[in-house]
Every structure is written in C-alpha cells, then in structure tokens.
Amino acid sequence: KTYKSTKATPFLPTLTATYKADKWAAFIAGNAVAGGSAVYNDGVPTFNLYYFSVLKGLTAQTGSQATAATLLNANLGTYTGNGKLEATSFYPACTVGGSYSITDIISVSLAGRYVYGYKSYKGNAEYSKAGKLELDAKETAQGIGAIIGFNIKPIDGLLVSAKYETATKLN
Predict the structure, then answer these.
(1) What single-letter DSSP state applies at residue 52?
(2) What CA–CA distance (Å, rounded) separates 137 from 121?
(3) SS3 of residue 167 by DSSP
C-alpha cells in the first residue's frame, strides 16, 4: 500500500544580521533548522506496526507470545486500514556568534545555537475489536549546540568554507 501526504511543507524562512569591524564580525540568525507537516487521510504504516509493538510488550509481560496474541486480539484486534494522521514538526533556532579574520585569506568563526523543537500529532486508527482510537499529542524539547567554522579565500572570487555543528541534544 502507498501512503501519500496531502499537505506540503510550509515555507521556512531565515533572517540574519551581521556587524563587522576591522577583523572581527558578530552575527545573529533566526531560522528553522527542521520542520514540516503532513496529512495522511488513509492512515500510516505505523498503525499496523502498533499491533506488533504491543504484542512484543505483552509477550515480555506474559512470557508467552500465544497468550499475548490472544489477549491482544480479544481487546484490540487488527488494524482495519481506516485511519487518519495529521502531523507537524517545527524546530526554530537562534544562532549567535562571531568571526575573526586571521589573515586576508583565512578566517574562523564560533557560534552557539539554541533550538526549540515542537511536534504535534492528531488522528485516529480503527481496530477490529477496540474500534476507533484517537490520538492527540504534543511534544516539545530544547537544546543548545555549537558551530565552528573555517574559511579560506585562495583567490578573489573563490571562498572555500567548512563548518562543524555539534549534536544538539534536545531535552
């Protein structure tokens, strides 16, 4: 089965400002580092996988897959294929940093980035025994990371850049 979203990803803007004085520069940026949205009117594969996830947990609790399957089939049943999911995620970030020109050819930069993550899920799934189950959940998280940059300008009109972004652990 093919699952298609009926909603496009929204426009994700970026806004930056820079102040430069001699060999130093300071900058601030606001942008979305990730995000998007989707609407699945015919459910998603995870609605069927949910059954197997619950089965695994019940098997661990009961010690028997046969017992777990009997309990699950009697109470939840199988996914009927009827379901809908609307999901949105948005990760806005604010980056503040500075750079220094070591020479006319080489410069380095260092920045800190704050990221706020937001996810929402709303939908339903229908199972043969339990009927329609509703989902309405929201998650948020935040974290801080660093960005280290290096630029080299070997000739006029050519700038070679590299940057390393640390992993931003979101809590």
Answers:
(1) H
(2) 5
(3) coil
Task: Please report where in the chains the tokens 């019940």 appear, as a residue.
Answer: 58
Q: Fill in the DSSP letter of residue 11.
A: P
Q: Residues 71, 62: contact at Cβ < 8 Å?
A: yes
Over residues 55-69, the pLDDT tens digits come to: 888 999 999 999 988
Q: For residue 164, how many C-alpha atoms fall within 13 Å in the half-sphere facing its CB? A: 4
Q: Could you give the CA distance from residue 171 to residue 168 in angstroms, rounded to a whole number?
A: 10
First vs last C-alpha separation in the chain: 35
| Average pLDDT, integer, range 72-88 | 86
Contact 80, 120 (CB under 8 A): no
As a whole number of angstroms, the distance between CA 74 and CA 58 comes to: 13
Instruction: Write the pLDDT tens digit of every residue in 115-162.
Output: 999 999 999 988 888 899 898 999 999 999 999 999 999 999 999 999
Residue 117: Cβ-neighbour burial (10 angstroms; 0-12, 13-18, 19+):
buried
The rounded distance, in Å, linking the Cα atoms of 11 and 32 is 10
